[in-house]
Amino acid sequence: MAEAIATPMNQPRRDFHFVFGLKPQNEPLHIAFFLALESCRQTNEPSAIHFHYRNEPHGPYWDRIKPHLTLHKVTGSMLLDSARYQSNAEGRFIVAQGLNYAHEADVLRLEILRDAGGCYADMDTLFVRRYPDQCFEHEFAIAEENPLPNSMGILAPSLCNAVMFAKPRSRFITRWLDDLPQSFDGSWSAHSCQAAARLARFAPDEVSLLPWAWFYRFGVSRAALTNLFERNAPVRHDVMSIHLWSRLWWSEARRDFSDFNAELMSEAHIRSVDTTYNCVARRYL
Hints:
- By secondary structure, the chain is an alpha/beta fold.
- It has ten helices and eleven strands.
- About 30% of the residues lie in helices and about 15% in strands.
- Helix 4 runs antiparallel to helix 5 (about 170-185) and helix 5 (about 170-185) crosses helix 6 (about 195-200).
């Protein structure tokens, strides 16, 4: 495990947390996940990169990044009420596709930030620029994503839990965790991103909102993913990191959001093909 970098007294600690490997790792660590960790390491000057896992990754990319990580073995289970998956079509789809481990990660990331503080980021993040120190000084900070349809099909505000900053014992995280058993309905994000937006309206003094473009300028749409993986679009100066929305395109069988898939992403492709993602990612190879 890597030693923590000493932090100057006039700067906050820059601890980063990632959650991965909650399901068995049957394939070597994918280059996209390696690049999430490596781009964080090269861009953000982290005090430590904390890697929380149940099943340890393997493969050449894991061997390259592991020495730079502080490893934390996840024990126990943090799954929410599994019976609620049967209450709606989205929940049944999530179970059928084996995606319910992501809901465990929703809980785990909040518990990690509540106990340790720092920055949580999803493993399908590509870091572009150094996150400002001010992000680590908020009691809790998060950014909006595109509005999502609620249970009635009406677009509602959503605060994306793919990147979050917190101090230990954040009041808002405690509020959010207390709300999870009631808000979880088996759908993808009613208990997470949509619940965060709802709770923030009642506790605005507990939440700092960061610019959405810092993390989510490439949003959830076929056009945005085409710009990211098939075209070479400019990356504006206000982009701090890029969220890849990997669940929408990872499988070759899923084509509703993108014709790109994880099997097409390789080191050779990143080095040789000029797309928006590749031109940023190749800096870290």
